[in-house]
Amino acid sequence: MSRFGGPTLAAGATADVTLLLEGTYPFVSGGVSSWVHQIIRGLPELSFSIVFLGGAVERYERLRYTLPDNVVHLEEHFLSEPPPPGSGRPRGGGDAAFFDQSAAVHDALRDHVDAATLAAALDGLVGSLLSAPAQREREFLHAERAWTDITGRYEAGSPRLSFLEYFWTVRSMHAPLFLVARAAARVPPSRVFHVVSTGFAGFLGVLLRRARARPLVLTEHGIYTKERRIELLQAHWIRDDSTGGDGPVGHLRQLWIRFFEALGKMTYDAADPVLSLYEGNRARQIEDGATPARTRVVPNGIEVERFRPLRAQRTEKVPHVLGLVGRVVPIKDIKTFVRALRVVCSEVQDAEGWVVGPDDEDPAYAEECRQLVATLGLEGRVRFLGFQRPEDVFPKLGLNVLTSISEAQPLVVLEGFACGVPCVASDVGCCRELVEGVAGEDRALGAAGAIVGIADPAGTARAAIGLLRDEARWRDAQRAGIARVERAYTQASMLERYRAVYRQALDRGSPEGT
Amino acid sequence: MAGIGFALRGQLRKETYASVLRAYLVAGIIGSGPWLISIASMLFIGVFTQAVGGPEHVATQFLATVTHLMALSLIAGGVIQLLFVRFVADRVFEGKASAVGANIVGALVVTTLGAGVFGTAEAALFFDEQYALRAVFAATFVTLCDVWLLSALLSGMKSYRGLLGVVAGGYLVSVVASLSLARLGLAGYLTGFLLGHALMLVGLLALLLREYPVEGAARFEFLDRKKVFWDLAVTGALFNLAIWVDKFVFWSSPVTSEALVGPVRYSVVYDVPIFVAYLSVVPGMSVFFVRIETDFAESYDAFFRAVREGEPLAEVRRLRDELVVAARAGVYDILRIQGMTAVVLLLVGERLLGFFHIPFFYAYLFRIDVVGVGFQVFLLGLFTILFYLDYRKLVLGLCALFAASNLVLSLVTLRLGPLFYGFGFAVAAALTSLVALSALSRRLDRLEYETFMR
To answer: Which residues in chain B (300-339) have CB-CB distances under 8 A to chain A?
Structure first.
C-alpha cells in the first residue's frame, strides 16, 4: 500500500490504533511529527497503523523517520491526485437521495443546527458516500443535479460573484472529500482511530467513525481551522474581489473558511475525547463547537532523561548564541529573528544567530530569509545550519528563541529548558505558560526567559540582550526552566495519559466482527 | 503544524476553457463547398459540348470520370482534412503558429504519398486504357486530394475571398483547357482538368504559405497521437462517404448504370438529376454562412468570453440565450430559404432540366433530390454549430448514421424500383437532420451545464 516502503497490515489482522495524519508524520519533520513518533515509540505494547493524507505527491520524497517496529501499516493518499478513470459521465441526473442528503448537511451546517440534527443529516450522506465513492464523485462532477445544486446555492448566496471562480472553488474544495471517501473504504481494520487534526484528516475520521463503528480520538496541536483561516486570509491564489459587498473578507475566502469550519465541526461531533495541548486551545475548540465534557488537556512532554546529561556539556560562560530551532517557513517568522539579530549583534560584540531546521519546505521563503541576512549585513553572524539533532545544538546555545506567529505547545522550548537553555518566545500558543508558569506552584518557579510580542524584532532583541548581559538573571531563568520541565512536562507523564486514553477507547469499542 | 497547504490551488486553474474554445473547425466542412463550383463547371462542359456538337460520348466519359475522382478523393481526403484543420487551429490558439507552415508541407507530403499509392494502384489495376490516361488519372486524383486539404485549411482560416478567387480561376482554366484539348479524347479532357487543378493547388499553397511561412524542413507533428483528435479522421471520411454512398449504390447496379472507362461507371437515371439538384444549395448555404459568420460567431465569442472572464451566472445565462437565438435563427434561415428554393424548383424544375438539355423523365427524381439536398445543407449547418461547440463525438455518430442510413435505404430503394429512386438519400438526410436537430437543441438548452460539467 505504501509507495515509500512502509509496512502493510496482514490480511485479517487488526491494528490497535490507526493514526490519521494530514501533512505530517512520517514525511515532514516538525513538532507534530516528533510528538507522533514519541507516542508510537512510547507505547510499544500497542500496534499502530498510519494513514497519511498529503497535498501534492511531489512534495513528499521520503520517510523522515525510521518507523518503530510497532507500526504495522502505512498508507499514503494525495489529495491532488486525479480520480481513478471511471465510466465517465453518469447517466441521468445522478442519485437523487445522495444529493438530497448533501443538501440537508449543507443546510444544517449553514443554519448551525444542534449536534443531533447535524449528526442525523450527516449519517445519511456518509452512508451513500461510502457505498460508492467513485460513483458519487462522478455524480458530483457531472450530474445535472450537482449543477442545479451548485447554481442554486450560488444564486441564493452570491449571485454577483464571478461564477467561474465560484464554480471552481466549490469543485476544488469538495474534490478531496471524495478522495478521502475512497481512502476510507480501504483503510485496514483498527480498534481505535486517532486523528491528529480536523480538516481532511478529520473528515476521514468522521467517515471511519461512522463506517467502522469504532471510537475516534482527536488531538489538536494547533487549531486547524484557525491556521487555515490565517492562510486563507493571506492567500493570493483566491481571486476574490472586494466589490461583492461582502465586507473585508471576500465571498470566496469566506466559502473556504466556512468549509474548514464545517470539517472541524463534524470532527468535533464525531470524536471523543477531544484533546488539546493547553487551556487556550481547549477553550477555542469549545468555541468552535466541541462538546465541553469531551474536551481535555494533555500537554506535550519530552524525554527529559535524554537531555539531562547535556547540561554538563555546557561551558561555564554563557555562549552568546541565539538559536531558532524550527523549520524555515513563514509561520516561524524567521525574518523577525534575523531582524532582532541585527540589533543584538550591534550591542553584543560576539553574538551569533543560528537557524536550525530544514529549509526545503518553502524554498522561496528560505531564499528571502537568506537575502534579508545579506541585506542587513549579517553574513557570518546569522547562519542557517539545516536540520541538526537537538542534542548537538542546545548545549551550544545561550538562548532559545522562538518568533513564531502561531504555535501550540512548542516542544523545542521544553527541550531547551531540559538542556538548561532559557527561552525568549513570542506570545503565541502556550509559550507564556511555559516560560512564566501556569499558576500557583508552577508559577512560583519563576520565569524561564522572556515573552515578547509577535513580529517584534526590537522587543525580541531587548529581551535577549537583557538576559545575556545579566548573568544572574540568566542563571535564574535556567533553573526555573529545568524545574518546570522536570515537574510538569515529561514524556513519561504524557505517555501515561495517552495510554489511558487508548485503553478507555479500546474498552469502549464494540467487539470486532460482523 | 505543517498543513497540506493548498495543493488545490493549482486545481482551481487546471481546467480552462481552452478545450472548449479551441478554435473552430467551422468551415472545414463548408470548405468542401468549392466542389459546388466544380459541379457547375462540369455541367457547363457537358452543355457546351452538346451545344457545339462536340464528342458527346467522350464528354460523358470525362464527366463520369471526374465525378468518380471527386467522390473518391473527397472520401480519402476526408481522412486528413478535418483532423489537420483542427490541428492547425489548436496550434494557432496555443500561439505556436510558427510550426504550422512546416506541418502544412508535411501534410501535403503525407496526402500526396497516400493518394499517390491509392491513385496509382487504381489506375494500374482497374484500367486497361493507354498509359497516358492512367497517368493523368492518378495525377488528378492526387491533385484533388491536395486541393481539398488546402481549401479546407483556407476556409478554416476564413480566407474565403482568396479561396474563392483561386478556385474560380482554377476552374476557368480547367474548363477552357479541357475544351481546348477535347480533340485528344478523354486523356485530353482530363489533362485540361488537371492543369486547372494544378494551378489551383499552387495558388492555394501560395495563399497559405504567405500566412504561415515554412521554417525549416517539413514537420509531421499532426501525426502525433497526443496533438490531434483521431476521431476527426473518421468523421471526415464518414461525412464524405455518407454524401456519396447512394451514388455508389446506383453505380454498382447494372440495372441503373453502365461501365464507361475502367472502374468508372455512370448512372444516367441517378447522376444527372442529383448533380443538377446540388446547384440548389447555393441560397441556403450563403444565408447560413452569413448567419454563422456574423450573429452566431459574435454571440459564441461573447458567451465563452463571459464564462472565461468570470461573469456572474446571470450574465452567462443571458448570453447563452443570445447564442441560442442566433443558432436558431441561422438554422431556421436555412430551412426557410432552402424550403423556398425547393418549392420554386419543384414548380419550374422541368423547365430548368430542359435548359440543361436533360430529358423530361428525370424531373420526378430531380424533385426528390432537391428535397434531399436541402436537408443535406440543413445538416451541414447543424454540424457546423456542433463543431463550434466541440461536440466531435456526436458529429461522428451523426455522420455514421447518415452514411449507414443512406447506404441501407439506397439499397432498399434500388430494389423497390425507379419510383423510389432518390428517396433513400432524401430520407437518410432528413432522418439525420432531425436527430441532429434534437441533439443540438437539447445541448443548447443547457449549454451552461454542458460547458461547465461536461
So the answer is: 307-314, 316
